[in-house]
Amino acid sequence: MTSTKSTGPLRLSLEESIPFLTILTIVWVTSIATNLLIVGIICKNSQRRKNYDLFVLNSSFADLLTAVTVIPFWILSAVHNQIDFVGEIYCRISATVSLLDLVAPIMFLTLVAASRHCALVDRKAFPRIFSDTRSRLMVLFVWLLALTISIPPHFTWPISTEVLCIPDLISNSWYTTAVLAFSVILPLSAGFYSHIHDIFLFQPERMKQNGAVKRHCERFALRGTEMSEQKALFGILVIHTFCWAPYTFVAMAQTLNEGKVFYTGKLPLHFIALIVGLTGIALKGIVFCFEVPHLKELIRKQFGCSEREESPSQDV
Prior knowledge:
Blueprint: E1 2-3, H1 14-44, H2 53-69, H3 71-77, H4 88-121, H5 126-129, H6 132-150, H7 152-155, H8 173-201, H9 212-220, H10 224-256, E2 261-264, E3 267-268, H11 269-291, H12 293-302
Antiparallel strand pairs: 1-2, 2-3
Helix pairs in contact: 1-2, 1-3, 1-11, 1-12, 2-4, 4-6, 4-8, 4-10, 8-10, 10-11, 11-12
């Protein structure tokens, strides 16, 4: 079923809004708690952080910004019956931050994968490529690029009522294609390749011929805690990808359908897809806190549980 009815507010009855209010409230509390903890722990232990923690810090900060700005808006939207109850500016800001959270963490998580990959395959080049100064410049570039991508759809050209208050991947099909190709698919491909190479391919048993590459692999292949860390970081990238994939596909389908909105009953389908995308913020925060070994160890020490259980491993 399609329609051109405005998407915000949702104008739901109390019974219809309870499931969404419950999910959004859990996601909101979990997202703020976990990402605030990650940001605080990394900042407090800045002298001990690993090279890629700077990228993790900014990825979590983007998620925290979304949790603070966007999720409360949709919690109120689920029960409010006036379309302009927060004002047009806040509505546009919420949509901008949502699109920012789709794009920026992908780039930061790809930089995490790239830095670990570089440290593994070419340790001599790593200090030059991912020096402190260049890493900060990379972070600045990602934020500028993400803002440049996210602001124009919501503040530059007119917004149709079909995409009011949500990340606009519908109004301009050419812009959407460019954003998805160069800011989503391309960095995701690089991130997935780096993780798959480091976890599954860069192992001594896969090296068929003796030589410098095999000797390097036997010496530096990921093992123990570093392998667990790599798998956890790969899982976080997978979570972000699959949580935002439904929204991306729905937006593409609406673009091909001339911007008309798909509905499931009274609910716009892209609202359900957006909730799935926002849920990824909480899931990523949980995995960062409980599955990434060195962050988990820092958190344990912060709360007085400093006993080490992990086996010694290389420090990438």
